[in-house]
Amino acid sequence: MDLLDAHFVPAVDGVAYGLLLFVVAAGLSLAFGTAGVLNLSHGTLYAIGAYTGAELSDGTWGGLAVGLAAGTAAAAAAGAGLSAATIPLARRGHLAQALLTFGLALIGGNLLIEFFGADDLPVRVPEALDSSVTLLGHRYPAYRLCFILMAVLLAAFGTWVLTRTRVGAAVRASADDPQMLATTGHSPRAVHTGVLAAAGALAGAAGVLGAPIIGPGAGTADTVLMLSLVVVVLGGLRSLWMTLLAAIAVGEVQTLGVSLAPDLAPYLLFAAMAAVLILRSQFTEPATAGAHGGGDGGSDPVAWLRRRLSASFSGRRAATATAEKAVAEKAVADRREPVPSASGGPLRRLLSGGRDDGGLAARGRKAAPLLALLVLLIALPTLLDAYTLSLAGSALALGLLAISVAILTGYAGLPTLGQTAPFAVGAYATANLADAGWTAGPVQIVVAAIAAALFSLVTGPAVIRARGTTVLMITLAIGELASAAINQLKSLTGGADGLVGFPPTQALFGGEGMVEESEVYNYALAVAVISVVVTVLVLRSPAGKLLTGTRNAEARMRASGHPVGRYLLIAHIGAGALAGVGGSLMVTVQQYLSPADVGFEIAAFALLAAVIGGSTSVIGALLGAGLIVFTRDWVASSWPGHGPLLLGALFVAAVYLLPRGLAGLRLGSGPGGRGAAKADQLPPDHDSVPAGKVAP
């Protein structure tokens, strides 16, 4: 009883917190499961309601009512605007939506801070609720009890609308069969807009009512988004009651778990999220793989047996030829020439990494732009000041991370939001080596690559069996678990304070530590050039063709006897090692390391850089990283406080203006062109309810 008494209040707080998350997650689930929009700006919709309600709160019932109406309406309007923004991307898959909505979240968050200020706003509740009541012998805030009641009523009302009304029937029909819905006289586009407006209204109402619990502040949107994603993953998209149970469980972990097991609480949520996703991918893998070209037959044992017999007779002869045939067939399906062309000008050849084969003259032409770029990079120390040169070094480090993302997303078909985890492993390994006196650059690079590769080897099996949106969520969970570990393992990472003050890196054994910006930049450039050359050679080799064939025609590869899982695991390990090298370079360039350098935003930036360049373009990923660093640090320095706004605008512009990336800006056709453009069309994810397609 003493234990129960000690933790009674946190347990009730967990219920209130969980119900708040349920209302927010219900909107997120509605947007994704019905409208098919992976909305990473959903936390911003909550923040719109929270800021509006706090601004209009005056301690009266009228102020609460006005704030609730205004906050809900503002978030609903933002949701309707989101519908207009995402409809043109309906056929491009969830990756494009994720990048767009993340950019909109950056813009919205910056505008909210600009309008309401960066400090947390006080929220005044009616005097009758600004007190405490006795609950089973314990004093408890009256407002939180009132919120529990309001959240239950809101959940009941939403369930009734979805299951018992014609509006709810139209919403469900838009997910199951939008064409049939259109024959009944309902516009799928109007339903799409209404669903996202309703999702925004739920988030806004939760923001107003939850502001006294999770007050409006600079980090509110990110916190609410991450917790809501966990709730949606744990509860699934098929049952509001399962979502309710998952939300209460998350709320209890956030409150009761912190008081009972504070050291484990940061890991529990995302570990549970990853475990659920992994288990689902294990059980649904045959069907999922079959949907996008893989699997072992799923529900068709005759087809499975036929493929197995075919594989046993054919063996693995002509493995590379099979992969090349798969690439060629995919090329024809994309209405482009399967044979790489040397046409299209130097820009295409530069961005495609020089993959088109030809005679000596053609090889000379394709090498010219690469050499020109290399000459320009070598000349930068004579052209730039020290600060800008340090930004160029940071761009090279982020560029290696972006290339690792491009390998997984563009070549292996595994879109990732967690590649900062091996990046962080390489970075912290380098920082700790330097602190221990191991300052030789080659040693730091090799150790960082090995440590990151081992990390990717451990996490790879959890990733490579999943496809589509599930991969995004699993890698996101891995990245968040790595962030939690960084904050907990203070002896190795410095916690939230980070690491600083370690000796500078030596370019070679026995040399002096590099202190001049030009020395550090030249070292970073040399490491980046070697890494890029090795990466391009591997991707152009038969192994690279096998990987591309795996992404484009997994069913044919499996039927031919290829160990597809092994190929993907090797790609995951190689990409992790490359990310570790990038993390090592970042530490050398910056001479400090903080959790923000390896957080979720950096993962999103790396994914954007890969998409900007063209998802199968190595050089394009480097240029995309340079553009991001240029926007984030150099341009934003001339407009202080608006870096997120500029980056958000870059996200939005890249999604709309560069659907095929920079590699798509060419006259001819070839790898890195239209085929690369399709990287944001994720394979079907059978863990989610199919969403209706809305014609643009």
From TrEMBL:
<keyword id="KW-1003">Cell membrane</keyword>
<feature type="transmembrane region" description="Helical">
    <location>
        <begin position="642"/>
        <end position="659"/>
    </location>
</feature>
<dbReference type="InterPro" id="IPR043428">
    <property type="entry name" value="LivM-like"/>
</dbReference>
<feature type="transmembrane region" description="Helical">
    <location>
        <begin position="367"/>
        <end position="384"/>
    </location>
</feature>
<feature type="transmembrane region" description="Helical">
    <location>
        <begin position="99"/>
        <end position="118"/>
    </location>
</feature>
<feature type="transmembrane region" description="Helical">
    <location>
        <begin position="142"/>
        <end position="162"/>
    </location>
</feature>
<feature type="transmembrane region" description="Helical">
    <location>
        <begin position="61"/>
        <end position="87"/>
    </location>
</feature>
<feature type="transmembrane region" description="Helical">
    <location>
        <begin position="226"/>
        <end position="248"/>
    </location>
</feature>
<feature type="transmembrane region" description="Helical">
    <location>
        <begin position="471"/>
        <end position="489"/>
    </location>
</feature>
<feature type="transmembrane region" description="Helical">
    <location>
        <begin position="15"/>
        <end position="41"/>
    </location>
</feature>
<feature type="transmembrane region" description="Helical">
    <location>
        <begin position="391"/>
        <end position="414"/>
    </location>
</feature>
<keyword id="KW-1133">Transmembrane helix</keyword>
<feature type="transmembrane region" description="Helical">
    <location>
        <begin position="190"/>
        <end position="214"/>
    </location>
</feature>
<dbReference type="Pfam" id="PF02653">
    <property type="entry name" value="BPD_transp_2"/>
</dbReference>
<feature type="transmembrane region" description="Helical">
    <location>
        <begin position="520"/>
        <end position="539"/>
    </location>
</feature>
<protein>
    <recommendedName>
        <fullName>Branched-chain amino acid ABC transporter permease</fullName>
    </recommendedName>
</protein>
<feature type="region of interest" description="Disordered">
    <location>
        <begin position="673"/>
        <end position="696"/>
    </location>
</feature>
<feature type="transmembrane region" description="Helical">
    <location>
        <begin position="260"/>
        <end position="279"/>
    </location>
</feature>
<feature type="transmembrane region" description="Helical">
    <location>
        <begin position="443"/>
        <end position="464"/>
    </location>
</feature>
<feature type="transmembrane region" description="Helical">
    <location>
        <begin position="567"/>
        <end position="590"/>
    </location>
</feature>
<keyword id="KW-0472">Membrane</keyword>
<feature type="transmembrane region" description="Helical">
    <location>
        <begin position="602"/>
        <end position="630"/>
    </location>
</feature>
<dbReference type="InterPro" id="IPR001851">
    <property type="entry name" value="ABC_transp_permease"/>
</dbReference>
<keyword id="KW-0812">Transmembrane</keyword>
